Automatic annotation (TrEMBL):
<keyword id="KW-0067">ATP-binding</keyword>
<dbReference type="GO" id="GO:0005737">
    <property type="term" value="C:cytoplasm"/>
</dbReference>
<feature type="binding site">
    <location>
        <position position="149"/>
    </location>
    <ligand>
        <name>ATP</name>
    </ligand>
</feature>
<feature type="binding site">
    <location>
        <position position="179"/>
    </location>
    <ligand>
        <name>L-threonine</name>
    </ligand>
</feature>
<dbReference type="GO" id="GO:0008033">
    <property type="term" value="P:tRNA processing"/>
</dbReference>
<feature type="binding site">
    <location>
        <position position="193"/>
    </location>
    <ligand>
        <name>ATP</name>
    </ligand>
</feature>
<comment type="function">
    <text>Required for the formation of a threonylcarbamoyl group on adenosine at position 37 (t(6)A37) in tRNAs that read codons beginning with adenine.</text>
</comment>
<keyword id="KW-0963">Cytoplasm</keyword>
<feature type="binding site">
    <location>
        <position position="119"/>
    </location>
    <ligand>
        <name>L-threonine</name>
    </ligand>
</feature>
<feature type="binding site">
    <location>
        <position position="65"/>
    </location>
    <ligand>
        <name>L-threonine</name>
    </ligand>
</feature>
<keyword id="KW-0548">Nucleotidyltransferase</keyword>
<dbReference type="GO" id="GO:0005524">
    <property type="term" value="F:ATP binding"/>
</dbReference>
<dbReference type="InterPro" id="IPR038385">
    <property type="entry name" value="Sua5/YwlC_C"/>
</dbReference>
<dbReference type="GO" id="GO:0000049">
    <property type="term" value="F:tRNA binding"/>
</dbReference>
<dbReference type="GO" id="GO:0003725">
    <property type="term" value="F:double-stranded RNA binding"/>
</dbReference>
<feature type="domain" description="YrdC-like">
    <location>
        <begin position="11"/>
        <end position="197"/>
    </location>
</feature>
<dbReference type="InterPro" id="IPR050156">
    <property type="entry name" value="TC-AMP_synthase_SUA5"/>
</dbReference>
Amino acid sequence: MFDTMLLDSSENSIKKASDLIRTGEVVGMPTETVYGLAANAFNENAVRKIFAAKGRPADNPLIVHVSSFEEISPLVTEIPVLARKCAELFWPGPLTMIMPKSDMIPMVTSGGLDTVGIRMPSNNTARAFIKECSCPIAAPSANLSGSPSPTTASHVLNDMKGRIPAIIDGGACGVGVESTVISFEGDGIRLLRPGFVSAEDLREVTENVLIDKGVLEMLDENARVSSPGMKYKHYAPKAEVSIVCGNSGEFNGFCMKNASADDVLMVFDESDAAGLENRLLVLGKSDEEQAQRLFDALRELDEMGAKKVYARCPNKTGVGLAVYNRLLRAAAFRVIVP
């Protein structure tokens, strides 16, 4: 058990946190997407501490974070041409690119795969921390495995108090959902996990963008996946969540007939629940607002003691696809078409 320290994002705090990384410990760190559990990606024992702290399955690969493009070369055996183009457009930022790993990346970090996902966060505190550590940082989301990802330091403390020695408080995350994850196939890009960098954005690099079936479908438990967030139940509150498809009127009509007074409605704005007296969680009208708010809202459901939740279905294009992908997993793929 640790007496978990909550550090600010000052230079001194970053140095204190990087000293912990050098001794093989795990630290909670902010990024623009969600908070991560950081450890030296080269240190097998430190990486195993991440899995232990999260209760995470060992075949779920970790994303390796760098502070500059030049840091990638030792980590991979090749950098595809499309990866360079993506880096030019989207780095630093919420995009993870999967490439063939070098022997420097331990199998425990890559989840037993011969590939590794790498990204360079745009969050200034994250990059300063990685640079100070002088090593690439393996960092999945800093939550207990399966629960909603954390977008504030207090979320991390709630899940990780006593499990890790320190958390850097960098404020609320601006994006709110984990990074987009892609792999490369010849002259094409495969979208494995949607995020703030959308399929439409990726088509600026190549028209050949394929959305993997794991984005919208439940994969077999025995399937091997190259991206986190594809296989296991994720982001789930204690309540039973169901996604209700349709426009505002159709959502309202369904809830009018089927939602009991105790059920919670997750809506874009209050007009979705006109005439209803249910408790509401408002995500926002735009895809970006919904992404930033989603995980906070899923955690609020537990605080509310919610038992059953009906969520209005997000868009399935742009950033909305990322919101829908996360909600699908929070709802264990329960989708209602009225």
